[in-house]
Amino acid sequence: xxxxxxxxxxxxxxxxxxxxxxxxxxxxxxxxxxxxxxxxxxxxxxxxxxxxxxxxxxxxxxxxxxxxxxxxxxxxxxxxxxxxxxxxxxxxxxxxxxxxxxxxxxxxxxxxxxxxxxxxxxxxxxxxxxxxxxxxxxxxxxxxxxxxxxxxxxxxxxxxxxxxxxxxxxxxxxxxxxxxxxxxxxxxxxxxxxxxxxxxxxxxxxxxxxxxxxxxxxxxxxxxxxxxxxxxxxxxxxxxxxxxxxxxxxxxxxxxxxxxxxxxxxxxxxxxxxxxxxxxxxxxxxxxxxxxxxxxxxxxxxxxxxxxxxxxxxxxxxxx
Length: 320
Known about the structure:
By secondary structure, this protein is α/β, with parallel strands linked by helices.
């Protein structure tokens, strides 16, 4: 079995390669050529343990992740865990992979796929609400699918925004970065808006006028009590695109407006259909992709990482 560390993940896959793996996962999802039990949640205090298994014809795997957004040491990541990749024929474990980094990279790629298929080709102004780990991979990935010239960042802690910009400038020196004092300023300036927080209350204002005409990528809410999106947004939408139908139960960003009859189930559509069937359109100027993630993304990216590590001999062998 081989070990793939955080540092090795960075060396093995570029954002464009991660996006390609995620698109393959969406195609598997459309063709139903996988088995993916519902994600298992267990919580104790601030800790949430997620168990995410998935099977395809050639590989299967399980990601075990702990999420703690209230971790005492803010220098530590809120997401930790491991991914175990197995051979489907023998059942033997092939690789153990850093789960936090895998999650970060694949989620950034998922957001970029949403941007690729929903936003306008000419969009170049990106707004990011929240300046944590996920904001970093979202910007890197989205800059791969659109010619982003300016990124506007809002976080309740401006220092986090400055740290994020310093990291991003090392990778994206041709982009202009701006820290916004108010989220309204970010909305005025952005064409694509990504929300990456763990908030229990909407992080965007209840103002239809400034919400209208943008592409929204909502990444943060993964529990029913979490909401990033304001009620006003849903009246501007024709369809709500999701990565998995499970999102309507898992995320408060969908369960709340459904319960309040702001939207109905017929509006919720799988992004995989948009990817596989290019003729499908979203004719509204305001568009939303809500992602809660799924184990199929992790499995496809894990297989890509494993194959590249074996091909180039970049790995550390471990024995159980």
